[in-house]
Amino acid sequence: MLEGIKVLSFTHFLQGPAAVQMLADVGAEVIKIEPPGGAFERAWTGFDAFVEGVSVFFLLGNRNQRSISLDLRDERAREIVWRMIREADVLVENYRPGVLQKMGFGFPQVHEVNPRLVYCSCTGYGSSGPYFKRPGQDLLLQAMSGMTLLSGEADSPPTPFGAAIVDQHAAALAAFGVTAALQARERTGKGTLVESNLLNAAIDLQIEPFTYYLNKGPLWPRTNPPIGSRFHPAPYGVYRTLDGWIAVSLTPTAKLAGALSRPELLAFNHPKDDVRRRDELNGIVYEALTTRMTADWMATFEEHDIWFAPVNDYEQVEADPQVAHNGIIMEVDHPEAGPVRLLAHPVRYDGAPPPLTRLPPRQGEHTREVLTELGYAEEEIAALVEGGIALTERRPT
Questions:
Q1: 6-205+325-391: CATH number
Q2: Is 167 a catalytic residue?
Q3: Catalytic site residue from 25, 138, 167, 274
Q4: Hey, which CATH number is domain 224-311, 3.40.50.300, 3.20.20.370, 3.80.30.20, 3.30.1540.10?
């Protein structure tokens, strides 16, 4: 769908690479421009997840693209970038605000050379304002955006979400902004400066509770036993069973009375009792569910048409038949790491995911190839490589 669109990627960590990978998955030609030491995510990974020395953090966010490695301290390397900019449709970067501009590749400089280019900056807090120099990282934005106080028991500490959801949402917003700007360019002929930041993404993830707060005031306090949010009526949350846990959501009280064999729930017959008597109703459900095994409740809830779900760990998620049917997990054979399993592109187009066309590249794997496409002669490329200005693929020793 983005075939023929050329993207330059000055990205590292997760927000920028995830955004670019979305564009690459649907056909954009992406060139990742790396410094001599390589992108940050090549040398770091969560969970110490290196496979044969290869960072899984790098593998999960850099497929379907090429790598060119340049020392941008050298004017000849910067000229290579300018050649690419003149031919590119999109530039995506997630350096700290002002860094790329100091290197000469900020939006004003680039727009003057290529006014059709869509320029996307991914930042922590935005390109200006009192926080623009602060480090932007997923956990920090969860904390400052109010997210860590949305659920849990009344006296439990703030609890961060166990995945980098802010990074990933900001990446999706950046990719959306780029595609919108490309569509606008079809009408106007001009590129746009697109900006996505973690702070806005973190607040946007909370569009429902935060908007309630803005228009009605503070949300209901966290409770004990806990309810799964600070704005839903009861029952809503993860409840303990005799041998584990089960999630129950937004079920009419009359249905619950039959499923739980708790006729006292029939007294909650006012349309707003699930709100007005929220804590009382939640406590009855919480206590009732502790009396039977999870599997028993699941069978009963199926019979009574209760909204529920099992509380799975990752082993159960991996074995889930719907997960398998959706094909969200794929296995690839990496030349260094060997067989690795990654998450596939999550969207389906005409019933199928976009194909894997390129494995995550080795650093500088495509330096010679890209320079040849830019018109450099073989002897010029050899001089750039020998001078350490353009770095080529580093193979394992």
A1: 3.40.50.10540
A2: yes
A3: 167
A4: 3.30.1540.10
pTM over 0.85: yes
Q: What is the 3 state secondary structure string of the chain?
A: CCCCCEEEEECCCCHHHHHHHHHHHCCCEEEEEECCCCCHHHHCCHHHCEECCEEHHHHCCCCCCEEEEECCCCHHHHHHHHHHHHHCCEEEECCCCCHHHHCCCCHHHHHHHCCCCEEEEEECCCCCCCCCCCCCCHHHHHHHCCHHHCCCCCCCCCCCCCCCHHHHHHHHHHHHHHHHHHHHHHHHCCCCEEEEEHHHHHHHCCHHHHHHHHHHCCCCCCCCCCCCCCCCCCCEEEEECCCCEEEEECCCHHHHHHHHCCHHHHHCCCCCHHHHCHHHHHHHHHHHHCCCCHHHHHHHHHHHCCCEEECCCHHHHHHCHHHHHHCCEEEEEECCCEEEEEECCCCCECCECCCCCCCCCCCCCCHHHHHHHCCCCHHHHHHHHHCCCEECCCCCC
Q: What are the pLDDT tens digits along the chain (397 aa)?
A: 999 999 999 999 999 999 999 999 999 999 999 999 999 999 999 999 999 999 999 999 999 999 999 999 999 999 999 999 999 999 999 999 999 999 999 999 999 999 999 999 999 999 999 998 899 999 999 999 999 999 999 999 999 999 999 999 999 999 999 999 999 999 999 999 999 999 999 999 999 999 999 999 999 999 999 999 999 999 999 999 999 999 999 999 999 999 999 999 999 999 999 999 999 999 999 999 999 999 999 999 999 999 999 999 999 999 999 999 999 999 999 999 999 999 999 999 999 999 999 999 999 999 999 999 999 999 999 999 999 999 997 654 3
